[in-house]
Design a protein that fits this description.
Blueprint lengths: L6 H14 L12 H8 L10 E2 L6 E2 L10 E2 L2 E2 L3 H7 L1
Antiparallel strand pairs: 1-2, 3-4
Bound molecules: zinc ion.
The site of zinc ion has 8 residues, from loops.
Length: about 90
């Protein structure tokens, strides 16, 4: 006596097979070259070049007045103590 599987049972078995499949997560669409390049734009940033102040020895950005002592190129440009008092 052969076992006859009803069509309803076939559907049920097929569903079991389908649900047992676990597809790996895949990107929905291709990443465009513009988007890829925008993402990579920040990958190779170089840190700011810092120099040491000749007056006080504080680390500062080049070509800027020292925020610590207010000196630039060996002369006082801003009076840091007065600026601090005003605030
Ligand atoms: Zn300085």
């Amino acid at each position: 006596m052969a076992i006859i599987i009803q069509p309803v049972q076939w559907v049920y078995l097929w569903w079991k097979v389908l649900r047992s499949f676990k597809m790996t997560p895949l990107p929905k669409r291709k990443v465009s070259s513009a988007r890829r390049d925008r993402r990579r734009a920040n990958d190779f940033l170089t840190p700011n070049n810092l120099t040491v102040c000749s007056n006080c020895g504080e680390v500062r950005l080049p070509h800027t007045v020292c925020p610590n002592c207010g000196y630039y190129k060996g002369r006082e440009v801003i009076n840091v103590t007065k600026e601090a008092k005003k605030e």
